[in-house]
Amino acid sequence: MAHRLIWISALLLLISVNLSSQSSDTDRGFTGDETENGVSVTSTAVAVLDSKLTQIFFPVVYIIVFSVGLPTNAMAIWVFLFRTKKKHPSSIFMANLALADLLFVIWIPLKIAYHFNGNHWIYGEALCKVLVGFFYGNMYCSTAFIACISVQRYWAIVHPLSQQKRNNKLATGVSVCVWLVVWAITVPLFLYDQTVKVTNLDIVTCHDVTRPSQSRYPSIYFLIMGVVGFIVPCIICIVAYVQMLRALKSSMTDTNIVQKRRKAVILIVAVLVMFLVCFTPSNIMVMVHYSLLSLGVQDSGYGFYITTLCLASLNSCVDPFVYYFISDEFREHVRNTFLCRSERTAQRMRVSFSALKYSKKNSTYTSDSGNTQSTSY
């Protein structure tokens, strides 16, 4: 899954680089000359907004994200909330991560229609702000909860006997704080215009073009968000992962413990790979783009910038597969859900299977013991 995602990411970035390289180096996308009727954008922005990249390729990617992300994240939330009886901190954080993905995915049809309509927004300023808010809210919720999962996995390895109930309460409290903080810091997105009339294309864009008179405000905001919402969680994930490897290396004597802990490491590595592949390009480009914009420096990376934002949305349909392929418990609950087995029925089947397995093992031991006695006489 990670390998395929990397190839998709590389394809998207190559297309955007090719498009950007064909534009004039003296053009600067993302803004333009403000007029009474709107904004007259540069030739680079016109080329990108009127290209097959944004009008065909982007909506196809978003259709895939919506088609895969909606049912899989809904299934993940169902499993975490209603099928997982024994709650633990990692499942609490994963449920919140799935919820963040789902809240973003349900708004994607508006973005699909926007791109298929020639990057022309017809749903009004309010809905555009909601879409933008959920887009960045999902991104920074995802980075925050992935950081929480990293820390929790490290804590579970270093302190495996810590109190479960107390940790669950702490995980719930942390999750609530993450939601409150993230949605509080997305409020500034609602304070300036997200829809802009592009006069030389006769379209209304949503978040794709910034008024020159308002460019300084989002520049400062996104630079701060890039540091707080991406760099800090990224450092937390990397530090937690390195410390986890050290803790695992120090307990290599017990094979059973190592096998159990390796699953935890595999999960966090998979999530970390998704984190870096999906969010690193977009957040770096956000900070670079707005830094150049605030300084008035000429930049022709507009196509690359919006491509990385499209790439970031892929994370919303990848996370459920990470849960499925790594977590045995999650995989079992998904199978039981598809087979319409209640939790009680599944529990009886597990008990019966365990009893049968123990019976066979005990029978084999008795048979071997009897053979030993008969041969000794």
TrEMBL record:
Keywords: Cell membrane, Disulfide bond, G-protein coupled receptor, Glycoprotein, Membrane, Receptor, Signal, Transducer, Transmembrane, Transmembrane helix. InterPro entries: GPCR_Rhodpsn, GPCR_Rhodpsn_7TM, Pro_rcpt_2, Protea_act_rcpt. Its main location: membrane. Residues 72-323 form the G-protein coupled receptors family 1 profile domain. GO terms for biological process: blood coagulation; phospholipase C-activating G protein-coupled receptor signaling pathway; positive regulation of Rho protein signal transduction. It comes from the Eukaryota. One of its GO terms (cellular component) is plasma membrane. It is found in: Cell membrane. It is a multi-pass membrane protein. Residues 1-20 form the signal peptide. Pfam families: 7tm_1. Disulfide bonds join 128-206. GO terms for molecular function: thrombin-activated receptor activity. The chain crosses the membrane at residues 56-81, 93-110, 130-149, 170-192, 220-243, 264-290, 302-326. This is Proteinase-activated receptor 2-like. It comes from Sinocyclocheilus rhinocerous. The lineage of its organism: Eukaryota, Metazoa, Chordata, Craniata, Vertebrata.
